[in-house]
Amino acid sequence: MKLSLISKYRTHIMGAAMMWIMWFHSAFTGKTEVFHFIHNIGFYGVDMFLLVSGLGLYFSMRKSKSVGEFYKKRAVRILPAYLIVTICWYAFYKTEIGFTDKLLSILGINYFRGTIYGRPEYFDWFLPTLFVLYLLTPLYDMLFQKASVKWKFTLLCMSVSPLLCIVFYHTGQQVLYGSTVRIAVFLVGYWIGWFLYEKREEDKASWMVHLPLLFVGIALVYYIQTYIKNPTVFWGLNCYPALLAAPALCAVLGAVFLLAEKYLKIVGKVLLLPFYICGKYSLEIYLFHQRIMEMMNGDRLTAFRDTVFSTLHVRVYSKWYYFIIALVSIALAAALHELITAVMKLFTKKRKIEPDKDPEKEGARKTDTAVNT
C-alpha cells in the first residue's frame, strides 16, 4: 500500500473518483446509514481528483520543455471539450440567460465574482478552479524547486487555504469555499508527485501509516457531517479531513487494483476496465453528467423523460434511473473525447504533410535529385 501505486493506477483512481462524484450528484443515497454516509461525502471524489491531478502536474512540469509547452498540453486536453459542451449548453438550453452572463459563465468569471451561487450552473465551479491552479503551477513549481525542505514549504503554502476561507467568510464570498478549501489537497498531491519522481523509497510498513490516516480522516468528516449545523462553517471545514483521507484512500485503491490485476488475472482486468474508462474520459463525463441530470430532472423535458423511462420500465428517480443517466454521460463523454482526438490527429498529420507540398521546396528537391544523378 504505497504512494507509488497512486501513480501506477492514476487513471483508475480518477475513474473511481468520478464514479463517486456521479453517485453524489444523484439523489439515490441507499437504504443503510453506511451507504447514506458514503453518498453524502461523495464530494471527496473531487479531492481525490485534485490530489491525483497535482501529482500528474509535477510529472508534466518535468517532461515539458517550456512553460509554453506545459500550458499547451493543458489547453489541448481541456479547452476543446469544455468550450464545445458549455457553448452548446448556454446556446441551446440556457436560452433565458443574457449574452453577457453566458459569456462570463463560460469564461469562469461569474464563479469568481460569486454571482452564480444557487443557480444550477454553479456546478461549473470546478473547471474555473482547475484553470487557476494550472495557470499558477509554473510559478509554484519554480518556488517549490528552490525550497530546501519540500514538506515545510508545502505546509507553508497549504496555510493559504484556511486563510482564504476566513477572508471569504468575512466578505460574504462563501461561494468560493469549493476552491479555497481544496488548495491544500492539491499541494499535497504536488508534493507526492515530487516524492515519486525523485524515486524516494517508502517503508514496507507504510500501510501502518496510511490506514490510520484514512480512519482518522473519515472519523473527522463524520463528526463534521453529524455535529456541525452552521452551513457556512460546515462548508468551510468539510474538505480538510481529505488531507488525511484522500492520499490514504488513493493508496488503498491502488493496492486493491494491484491485487485484482495480479491475482484475478483476466477477471481482474475486466473489473478494472470501468474504472479506467471513467478515468480516461473523466473531464468529459464531468461536463455531461450534471447537465444531463439537470435536463432530466427539470420541467422542460418531463414528457420526454417519462416516455423514455416508462418504455424502459424504469421508475424515475430510482437507482436505475441514475444509473442510466450515468451510462449515457459516459457514452457521450467517450464519443466527444474520441472525436476531438481524431480531429487533433488529423490537423497534426496535415501540418506535417503540408511543408512537403510547398512548390519551392518541391522544385528544389527535384533540382537536387537531377544534380546528384
Question: Briefly, what is this?
Answer:
The protein is mainly α. The protein contains 20 helices and no strands.
**Structural class assignment:** mainly alpha
Q: What percent strand?
A: under 5%
Q: What is the oligomeric state here?
A: single chain
Number of helices, where a helix is a run of at least 4 consecutive DSSP H or I residues? 20
Explain how this protein is built:
It is a single chain. The protein is mostly helical and 373 residues long. The protein has one domain. Helices cover 78% and strands 0% of the residues. It has 20 helices and no strands. The chain has helices at residues 4-8, 10-25, 33-40, 44-63, 67-93, 99-106, 109-113, 126-146, 150-158, 160-170, 177-180, 183-197, 207-227, 231-237, 242-263, 265-280, 282-297, 302-311, 319-353, 359-372. Helix 2 (10-25) packs antiparallel against helix 4, helix 2 crosses helix 16 and helix 4 crosses helix 8 (126-146). The chain is globular and about 60 Å long. The N and C termini lie far apart (66 Å). Mean pLDDT is 87; it is low at 359-373.
Topology:
Elements: H1 4-8, H2 10-25, H3 33-40, H4 44-63, H5 67-93, H6 99-106, H7 109-113, H8 126-146, H9 150-158, H10 160-170, H11 177-180, H12 183-197, H13 207-227, H14 231-237, H15 242-263, H16 265-280, H17 282-297, H18 302-311, H19 319-353, H20 359-372
Helix pairs in contact: 2-4, 2-15, 2-16, 2-17, 4-8, 4-12, 4-15, 5-17, 9-12, 12-15, 13-15, 15-16, 17-19
